[in-house]
Amino acid sequence: MPARPVGDAAELVAAVRSLLAADAGGGVVLHGPPGVGKSWLAQAVAADWRRTGGLVVVAATRGPVTESSALLRHRADPLSPPGAEQLVLLDGIDALDPELGRAALAAARTGGVRVLATARRRAAAPGLTGCPVAPLAVPADCSGVALQEFCQVPSVQLYASHVRELNPDFRIDRHNQHQIAQTCVDLRGVPGALVLAARVARLEGPEVLTAILERRAGPEGPELVRLLNAYRRGRPSGPVPQLTAAERRLLAHAVLFTGGFGAEALRQVTGVPVEEFTVALQTLVDAQLLALSGLPSGRLSGLTRVRLHLPLDVPAQPPPDPREPGFDRPAARLAHARYYARLARAGARRIEEGAQQSGLAALHCEERNIRTALDTLLGAGPAGEALDLIEDTRGYADATGIELATAGQLRALAAACPPGEQDRLALLLAEACLQAGEADGLQALLDQAVATGAPTGPHGARWQRLCAVREFWHDTAAGSALLERAAEQALQCARRDGAAGGAERGAARIRLEAALARFLSGDSAGAVEAVRRVLPDALRRQDVVGAGGALLHLSLFLAATGDSAAAQDCHQRAMANLRTLGAPAVLGAFLTIAASPLLSAAEVRARGAVRVLAGFHAGREACLGTPTEPDLAVSRIERRYRPMLSEREFDEAQRAGAAVPLPLLLAELAVQYRRTADRPAPAARPAIAVQGQNASSNDVLTLRQHQVALLVADGLGNRQIARQLLISEWTVVNHMREIMKRLGCGSRAQVARWVHTGEPSGPAARADPPLWPATSAR
């Protein structure tokens, strides 16, 4: 049964009938790629033709070649109503022999009848008026804050309606929203593919569908291809052409890619000579074994607006024989990974050198292929190559807030990491822990770094920045001063080494973070002055991300001081810069403030991030205009913060963010931060004796107990401490019992008093060396 497009059927039929009535040549050809609903629309027009008293003659284009002569004899059928207007339906005319097709069209036009044909290409029916049948609209992005709006997207409607045929209780909610949106985008809104995907999802489960769309290159790949072909029951398909060795090689490697790919990527990964490649690719596209779209693809030299896809609803080729010469699946996956590692490095270089629009766009559209490449390198490649790829995506993560590597992936490298790379791995792990709010992991890595001398090495400024942020959580003034030292050190290193672009940009990011720390410490004037020193340098470097971020920070600081006119002007200038880079860059700039690691509590960061994401989604068109292509930027980042909040907290943050325009939301954040800054700084904390730091055994706290005590002093409850340290509430309770026992305290208030004043009820604290590495740098 042909896939039915979503929309007003009567409106679609009326539009085609209007073309048939107006066409002087006698016919219309509905053309478009496989699965878009050409056959369904043609049959709907034919049914309407019959209802209005006309005669429809259906030519079986996939039947015997004598069908056209039978078609003409049918015109003299005595059963035809007198004077009935005739419509000849040629469904799939490009499957006819070319001469037979031309003869049928000529005969129909000579006899004064109308012709309605369907074809994959307009050129298959010369002389007929072309009527393109396009795929369904797909969501540009999605968020739980606009669930009803999401459910009205035509591709989403079609997918959901076919899932409900077997499961009437199926509902779209915020938990399955991203998966549905990604499916619609991956399948480019093609109805036939969406119907097939819904069939797989409702019978096998959405996880299997995701595996088919994303992991066909994995060990389960051949089995998934066989499963997918089994679900293509009853779908019409033309004969599969006899493929050459080059064409088979291209198809065998096409399954390595996730979410589509560019022609350059396929050529580089397969290694097919360019002369053979162009002919083979054209053949596969002509045979509809590969599909083309106008979505962007990353290239080593920039970006192109052409993307190749493996069509889901076209029968897949059988898995390649591993014995076939020239095909080695593990080697092919490694070639794929190394190509995208090179692409990530090229994109990072363009971001550093000022071509940020093409650099960010190339990395954004190839995010999923880069993630696949990282998985391959983590599993089968040298550890150094995996670390290089992660380093090369840092600039993208800083600009967009989208992390391509997780702390878990980095930890998996620990066993295979050579000794010379241990410091670099520890640094990347510490930065990942900081972003994830994993205070315990961060502290352990900082202690390890001090022991190995890493803070004085080539990445000293990055280490100092981590130590400063960690110190800021407990002493805003001291942490702010350390951040400024780290920023100055980074700037001096960039100038001393003659490094341009990336090094200066990294130093500028630390300087902006230091300005925000000043503001949170209560020094608004100093924060404004610090940003005004950063901004000219960013403009000189043509650093659009840096300039936009600086202006956004300045807007925040000015709003807090009551200068609303200047704050609004800075906000408008920031948006003018950032919108040229697209939604990910706009969100990244806001998240550097709303989810700054200077906010020690992970749930506070998550709440601010969710508010910004909801506010951006609600006002996206006002910020960026109507989206021209899907990016799913909000949806991807939302998934990162969802586990940090309860369902109720997440809903409340979304509703609060969606109700406020972004400029006002930034002002609200300024008020919230101002209240934080107006609180008096806590008294200097005594150095708590920590096990392993020359303390006696009867009055020590373990590292974990020390962290719990500090968070208690910050006013956090057991649940909040558990989330901050990623442990259970019962573990927190047990730690509290042991802390009270060791310090001789009878309540949480006494523990807090001990931390703040150094006057415990029990044994006095000793003047041991400070715990935090940053403290030694004061």
Query: Biggest sheet: strands, sense, closure?
Result: 5 strands, parallel
| Sheet with the most strands: spatial strand order | 2-3-4-1-5
Annotation field: number of helices: 37
> Would you report the number of β strands?
9
Q: Give the amount of beta strand, in percent.
A: under 5%
Low-confidence stretches: 62-80, 677-699, 761-778
Question: Structural class, judged by helices and strands?
Answer: mainly alpha
What coarse outline follows from CA principal-axis ratios? elongated
Q: Averaging pLDDT over every residue, what do you get? A: 78
* Percent helix range: 55-70%
Describe what this molecule looks like in 3D.
The chain is mainly alpha-helical and 778 residues long. The protein has a five-stranded parallel sheet with strand order 2-3-4-1-5, sandwiched between helices. Strands 6-9 form a two-stranded antiparallel ribbon. Helix 14 runs antiparallel to helix 15 (356-365), helix 22 (460-472) runs antiparallel to helix 23 and helix 26 (544-560) packs across helix 33.
Features:
single chain; 778 residues; mainly alpha; five-stranded parallel β-sheet; two-stranded antiparallel ribbon; 37 helices; 59% helix; elongated
SSE order and pairing:
Blueprint: H1 9-22, E1 27-31, H2 38-51, E2 55-59, H3 67-74, E3 86-90, H4 98-110, E4 114-119, E5 129-132, H5 147-151, H6 154-164, H7 177-186, H8 191-204, H9 206-214, H10 221-231, H11 245-254, H12 263-270, H13 274-286, E6 291-293, E7 297-299, E8 302-304, E9 307-309, H14 329-353, H15 356-365, H16 367-380, H17 383-392, H18 394-400, H19 407-412, H20 422-436, H21 439-452, H22 460-472, H23 476-496, H24 502-520, H25 524-540, H26 544-560, H27 564-578, H28 583-594, H29 602-618, H30 620-624, H31 633-641, H32 647-658, H33 662-678, H34 703-713, H35 718-725, H36 729-743, H37 748-757
Parallel strand pairs: 1-4, 1-5, 2-3, 3-4
Antiparallel strand pairs: 6-9, 7-8
Helix pairs in contact: 1-2, 3-4, 6-8, 8-9, 11-12, 11-13, 12-14, 14-15, 14-16, 14-17, 18-28, 20-21, 21-22, 22-23, 23-24, 24-25, 24-26, 25-26, 26-27, 26-28, 26-33, 28-29, 29-31, 29-32, 34-36, 34-37, 35-36
